Amino acid sequence: MFDIQEELKKLPQKPGVYLMKDQYENIIYVGKAVNLRNRVRQYFQQSANHSAKVKKMVLQIKEFEYIVTDSEVEALILESNLIKKHRPKYNIRLKDDKNYPYIKITINEDYPRVFMTRKLVKDKAKYFGPFTDGSALRETLDIINKIWPIRTCKRVLPRDIGKDRPCLKYHIGQCKAPCAGLISKEDYNKLIEKVITFLDGKYDDVIKELESKMMEASEELNFEKAAQLRDQINSIKRIAQKQKIINSALEDQDIIAFAKKEDEALVQVFFVRAGKLIGREHFFLDGVDERSQEEIMTSFVKQFYSGTSFIPKEVILQEEIDELNIIQSWLSSRKGQKVYIKIPQKGDKSKLVEMAAKNALLTLNQFGEEIKRKEKRTKGALEEIQKLLALEEFIHRIEAYDISNTQGIESVGSMVVFEAGKPKRSDYRKFKIKSVIGPNDYASMEEVISRRFTHRIKELESLEEKGLTVEEGKFTKLPDLILIDGGKGQVNIVKKVLSDLGIDIPVCGMVKDDKHRTRGLLYNDEEISFSSKSEAFKLISRIQDEAHRFAIEYHRKLRSKAQIQSLLDEIPGVGPRRKKNLLEHFKSVKKIKEASLEEIKSVEGIPDKVAENVYNFFHKNTK
Fold it and tell me: What are the backbone angles phi and psi of residue 327, rounded to the nearest 5°?
């Protein structure tokens, strides 16, 4: 039993991160402290002047844990990572988890490639971006590929030079075929230098060169080539016009401002790269009621820059933030050079912040009703279900289970997870039924539930031995409600398994009508009906459909795999490797069946005799 008052006495007077947990061991709040003892004890002091939200949170805290760090900066980094990972319901949460694309040039390779990536790593390559508009990135890459004939393949050069013939791109003039040694390393890298010049925004140099080539083509009466060059020039000018000059110092900046309404805030970020405004993006924050402007801005900055790959030289903010020097040091360490956080009061930078703030308010007003509708569909639906079932605790996490089989063949179980009324697909799980023979849905459900929660017990023991948190496991999180796609018999089986394991979680059956549509919930042996127009009904229907879809999808996959395996395994001479070669070449058994003998013989690793066996097997079976 966790004794909070006793554990408070053991807290060290060191910097670190603390994690507050509820009765189900779910992390409900993550915080950072310069002094863990002083900060954590404040929550449990009756004299503390807490907000209503903090008071509500404290009532739910059943235990806590902490991680000591060497410095405040380390604590800040860890806090940001844990909030992003666990998304505790009492933290201000960044709803959008965007990962922007960049253009990467692998100048660390002898023959560099140019392509899109969403990951920035320290690999000595060159990155350009971020691009907030995917179509702009694709247009830019398209122009590069049309103007400069550089490779797009993943061959390792110079190791693979001469091993294969040039591909189609060489024959249509879109690659100089370094893979075949048809261009020197020096000449190839001159092309790459021109691409870098273009991506650096020096469009005038590129346009002048293309205009010169266009005039030459025109003088030689090669009007088709001249027209192509003209179109390329116009494309570059179109890209140049989209990028508004913001500062003459050609600096990288992020300009950040927000607007707040009730429990929602919308943050607007303008991305300025090399002095040009290349894009903007908005982000939603929830859990901001009763929070100060400083708290909201601080939370956003920490969460946003813990997840984004690129750190600009300057971060320009609408509001002051807590611990400015610590956050500035953290950003500088991430970037590898000094980063400046500024809160301008006048001048050009102040006007930019004002522009971002106006855009934030306009966007929040524009999406305000949509936000309310989404809130009604998710949080509102969960509150309805909670009232219908007369549950004391708010429902955050729901797990739903379904069984699928065809006359007992390849029986499978599905577990789908909804958190805050939305599917959390990373937590979905599939179970191939092992202990049940034949079509026995009751026994299959018993196996699935038993395996799911037994896994949790084993993982908890393993995590404790390794000194890891409960959240590190795949099955350690407990749901607030379990939904079963079945009736009274299946519900009672699930309740018995949970009781035997000492777990107390409400269990409901999702009842269907004669047309196999959701009708209501079976809870404590009583059927609870609700209006088909209610948000609770719609959410239950979505969950039931998703559990069924996920189970059916897995069942079909296993059946298909079994059919393919059993069919090809009957052919003499076809083992695992040859079976793989055949399927990779023809893509399906149907295509193998339709292939001629010569086509089968052409497959790599298939001897003539085996090819004849394959051909004869299918043609004899179709006669």
Answer: -65, -40
